[in-house]
UniProtKB/TrEMBL annotation:
Keywords: Membrane, Transmembrane, Transmembrane helix. It comes from Eutreptiella gymnastica. This is EXPERA domain-containing protein. The keyword Cell wall biogenesis/degradation does not apply. PANTHER family: EXPERA DOMAIN-CONTAINING PROTEIN, PROTEIN CBG05606. The chain crosses the membrane at residues 50-72, 84-102, 122-147. The keyword Ribonucleoprotein does not apply.
């Protein structure tokens, strides 16, 4: 739930630009981004289509989570399908973040190279790394559980 709320906030920031940027009408809802857009300039770059595409993928991911949770809560018999949908959303989170970080690295760190090493690590690597680490752990554990011989026999 917390991850989905953070994802929604991040998505809103990106899709509401330029109004969400510092100095604009909606920025008071997004004040922590004042610092972040100086570390990763792609978040403020109105010509960067990748972050907009990523935001729309966030919308798809959040819909998957909402449908999966509602489906799971509605019916115990729907458990397996709901679990697969939620598992897919975790894979999506992991994959989007790997792609986002790989794009930056392969692009010569063009959006983050202006920042200090301390800010780069604490404000870019660690937060983005968390979106790889935790979904990665969930993928491994949940995937193993979904594919276990006992589970496969019971379905």
């Amino acid at each position: 739930v917390v991850a989905t709320l953070l994802c929604a906030w991040d998505t809103a920031f990106l899709l509401l630009r330029p109004d969400s940027l510092p100095g604009h009408s909606l920025h008071h809802f997004f004040t922590p981004y004042t610092l972040y857009v100086t570390v990763d300039t792609s978040w403020a770059d109105m010509d960067d289509d990748f972050v907009v595409a990523q935001a729309w993928m966030n919308v798809v991911e959040m819909v998957m989570v909402a449908v999966g949770v509602l489906w799971y809560c509605k019916s115990a018999r729907a458990g397996r399908g709901a679990e697969v949908l939620l598992f897919a959303s975790v894979v999506m989170t992991f994959s989007k973040t790997v792609l986002f970080m790989a794009k930056e690295g392969l692009g010569g760190w063009s959006h983050v190279k202006q920042t200090s090493m301390m800010d780069f690590v604490t404000l870019w690597v660690l937060p983005n790394g968390a979106w790889i680490l935790f979904p990665g752990i969930m993928m491994l554990q949940w995937g193993a559980a979904l594919a276990s011989p006992e589970r496969l026999k019971s379905d």
